[in-house]
Write a structure and sequence with these properties.
The complex is a heterodimer of chains A (114) and B (115). Chain A has strands at 3-5, 10-14, 19-21, 24-26, 32-38, 44-50, 56-58, 64-68, 73-78, 87-95, 98-104, 108-113. Chain A is mostly beta strands and 114 residues long. Chain B has 115 residues and is mainly β. Chain B has strands spanning 5-7, 10-13, 19-24, 31-37, 43-50, 53-56, 65-68, 75-79, 88-95, 105-106, 110-114. In chain B, the strands form two sheets. In chain B, strands 2, 4, 5, 6, 9, 10 and 11 form a seven-stranded mixed β-sheet that branches. Chain B has a four-stranded antiparallel β-sheet with strand order 1-3-8-7, with no helix packed on it. Classes of the chains: A mainly beta (114), B mainly beta (115). The A-B interface holds A 6, 32, 36, 42-46, 49, 51, 90, 94-95, 98-107 and B 4, 31, 33, 35, 41-45, 48, 55-56, 58-59, 91, 93, 98, 100-101, 103-109.
């Protein structure tokens, strides 16, 4: 069975500061990893995904994530955040026996302070 | 190309009533997925459908919940005899294929409140 753990439920940061949102996964098969963002009262939007190849994945809005197989992690980073980045961020995994469904983490709420 | 559409956006029901949630996938997408988000939690997979077929319903509660995706028209998630614990946001996603790793595009969700 696959699972995703987001270690921080809330991350407060100051505007223009760097941020890292942590994500660890567990799986016995090859997986595909995603980060989604959910703005208040909206649906989810894909930020980036890792399928194969380069372990550093660049996404929209200046975000990037690094796949680390040995540490089973897929942390999300941004070098300088903006107020508009305030949202909930979900790490997710698919693959193996759950090929068609996405398994989501519990989410990390990113709050940006001016 | 319009995105995934869900309606209604907000739905209020009293205990014991029925709730019907609709999802129109993106144009050209024949795969639909339903997820439920309970307050302060992540999304949980419920069911995966292709046109006229349920492919994976491993996340659906055994009773009161059903889903369909007819040949014509939107996908419907139906909850009979709703209880307070059904209060949640229900999200629909669609994809053009069901390949592993294919992006699922999410709708804005339907927020169900059971009084």
């Amino acid at each position: 069975a696959q699972s995703v753990t987001q270690l921080d439920s809330q991350v407060p940061v100051f505007e223009e500061a760097p941020v890292e949102l942590r994500c660890n996964y567990s799986s016995s098969v090859s997986v595909y990893l995603f980060w989604y963002v959910q703005y208040p009262n909206q649906g989810l939007q894909l930020l980036l995904k890792y399928l194969s190849g380069s372990t550093l994945v660049k996404g929209i809005n200046g975000f990037e994530a690094e796949f680390n197989k040995s540490q089973t992690s897929f942390h999300l980073r941004k070098p300088s955040v903006h107020i508009s980045d305030t949202a909930e961020y979900f790490c997710a995994v698919s693959g193996g026996s759950s090929a068609s469904k996405i398994i989501f983490g519990s989410g990390t709420r990113l709050s940006i302070r001016p | 190309n319009a995105g995934v559409m869900q309606n209604p956006r907000h739905l209020v029901r009293r205990r014991g009533q029925e709730a019907r949630l609709r999802c129109s996938p993106m144009k050209g997408h024949s795969h639909v997925y339903w997820y439920r988000q309970l307050p302060e939690e992540g999304l949980k997979f419920m069911v995966y459908l292709q046109k006229e077929n349920i492919i994976d319903e491993s996340g659906m509660p055994k009773e009161r919940f059903s889903a369909e995706f007819p040949k014509e028209g939107p996908s419907i998630l139906r909850i009979q005899q709703v209880v307070r614990g059904d209060s949640a946001a229900y999200f629909c996603a669609s994809s053009p294929r069901a390949g592993v790793g294919d992006t699922q595009y999410f709708g804005p969700g339907t927020r169900l409140t059971v009084l």
